[in-house]
Amino acid sequence: MLRNRIVRKLGLTIIALIFSILVPLGLALDYIFSNFYKHSMENNLEYLTVHYAEMIEAHGGMMTGMMDMMAEMSSVDLIIFDKNGQSVKASDNFDPPKLSSLTGQHRISLSEGSSVRFEATNQSGKRFLGMAYPVAGINGYKGAIMLFSSIDTVTQTLKNIRYLMLLAGIGAFLVAVGITNILSRRLSNPLLQMESAAQRMAQGDFDIRVKALTQDEIGSLARAINELAGELKRYRDTRSEFFANISHELRTPITYLEGYSKVIKDGMYDSEEEKNKYLAIIHEEAARLKHLVQDLFELSKMEEGKISFNMEWMDLSEAMKNSLRTMEPKIKGKALELQAEIEPNLPYVFGDGMRMEQIFINLLDNAIRYTEKGKITVAMFRDQYNVVAEITDTGSGIPEEEQPNIFERFYRVEKSRSREYGGSGLGLSIVKKLVEMQDGTIEVRSRAGAGATFSIRFPINDPER
Ligand code: ADP
Questions:
Q1: 147: phi > 0 → left, psi -120 to 50 → alpha, else beta; which?
Q2: Residue nearest to atom 8 of ligand 1 (CA)
Q3: Distance, CA of 372 to CA of 352 (rounded, Å)
Q4: What's the CA gap between 100 and 117, in Å, rounded?
Q5: What pairs with residue 376 in β-bridges?
Q6: Which of 400, 412, 417 has most ligand 1 atoms within 8 Å of its beta carbon, as the pocket-test mutant?
Q7: Segments in 75-150 forming alpha helices (H)
Q8: Of all atoms in ligand 1, which is nearest to the CA of residue 391?
């Protein structure tokens, strides 16, 4: 259907275009040719008439044999009139309408020295152009010579030319229709392919690809469709992986909750102490679930672009100090040392104070969780273009090959010990998104067993500082 529509539309447009060019062009050429032939015939006849009149004047008359020869050589018919307008001689095989005398008007014009031009038709319907010229003698007007040339030869030539032009026009038209057909098929075939690819994609087949051979707009549309298919496939794969991860993360705490609550419900414990131990596990697992759900909610808001930022010029060191105050009990609880090296008077950065605290608390929480002994160092300083915040710990560290993955959702380095450390596996991906949404960057430097440093940079845009 689509192909038909395009072929038809394009075809009709081109046919209309060709007609609008060919028809006026043909008419103009016809007009030019007709005029050209008519004029050249008239000029020729005039030239001959004058020439023969001069000859008669020079020789004082014309011999019949000479007259016939000239008529044959020039393909004209000749007739000579005397002073009174009576025909004297006519060339051999005279074809035009036989005139025995000149009409009154023609005789007057000729005797006054003017030439005469007229058209006439003979008995068999042949058309002639006639031209008469006065012949002068010693005593003035002596008579006239009249030449006839057949118009039908010119008409026939013009007919032939018209026929040729018509043939050329039909040929051009047929070639144009053929080319249009090929072109429109070339145009519609890839479009049809793309249409069917889009339909397959709508049915969930993202492996489909369109052949994008050309470098024009159609080729780039095909490439865009292929990219779209690739993106959709990636999106579907990560979404399925995401759901698989979520159900895995939810299943473990729910199993714990179910198991321990059943133990308590059925009174399957020996002492109050044992019962409290189970209740503490239930509490811990419920807290873990709450944390996971909160992180998931946060992440989905970010991915849908629904998270709002209260952006303003702010002192990043204030956000860090607040975060340290919040996390201090945890640091102390694990008997870790805390060292803070915060440069005074740091330039302001453009960001949301609460979101900055969320970032620092997440990173401090990780540093505490993955460090058993030693210290946590917080450094803040400026480089040429940024304010830099670094959180360093002396904990388990991250092997180099794992470092590119830790910002992915649910990625954990030590999968087997993840319950022991706690956390949702979403912390760093949330941190990275929050940093980037405020024009910052985050990187990690670490070695397995030798602690880790997370560096965050926010650009200094404040021209005053
Ligand atoms: P989690 O909730 O598991 O901590 P994150 O997204 O915050 O999830 O971190 C991803 C993984 O990166 C962690 O599981 C851990 O293996 C590793 N990681 C993050 N921070 C540290 C750190 N300070 N020291 C060592 N490993 C870390």
A1: beta
A2: 425
A3: 32
A4: 18
A5: 338, 393
A6: 412
A7: 104-111
A8: 23
* Torsion of the alpha carbons at 123, 125, 128 and 132, rounded to the nearest 10: 30
At 14 the pLDDT is 81
- Whether 448 lines ligand 1, by a CB cut-off of 6 Å, is no
Please say whether the beta carbons of 143 and 88 come within 8 A: yes
Cross-strand partners of 441: 457
Q: What is the mean pLDDT of the chain?
A: 88
**Cα distance between residue 238 and residue 232, in whole Å:** 10
Kindly state if the Cβ of 395 falls inside 6 Å of ligand 1. Answer: yes
Q: Is the CB of 367 under 6 A from ligand 1?
A: yes
CB 365 within 8 A of CB 295: no
Residue 310 pLDDT class (50, 70, 90 cuts): very high
Structure tokens given for 138: 């010693």
Please calculate the CA angle 123-129-134 and round it to the nearest 5 degrees: 115
Q: Exposed, middle or buried by CB within 10 Å (0-12, 13-18, 19+), for 129? A: buried
Query: Is the Cβ–Cβ distance between 136 and 142 less than 8 Å?
Result: yes
- Model confidence at 3, pLDDT cuts 50, 70, 90, reads low
In short, whether 323's Cβ falls inside 6 Å of ligand 1 is no
Does 424 contact ligand 1 (Cβ within 6 A)?
Answer: yes
Beta bridge partners of 136: 141
Please report which helix (H) or strand (E) contains residue 294, including its range.
helix 272-303
Q: Which residues of 192-216 are buried (b: 16+ CB within 10 A; e: fewer)?
A: ebbeebeeebeeeebebebebeeee
- CB neighbour class for 41 (10 Å; exposed up to 12, middle 13-18, buried from 19): middle
- Our measurement of the distance from residue 113's CA atom to the centroid of its chain's CA atoms, rounded to an integer in Å, reads 77
**For residue 411, which of 424, 395, 421 has the smallest C-alpha distance?**
424
Residue to mutate (ligand 1; options 361, 398, 432, 442; most atoms within 8 A of CB)? 398
Q: Which atom of ligand 1 is nearest to the CA of 407?
A: 6
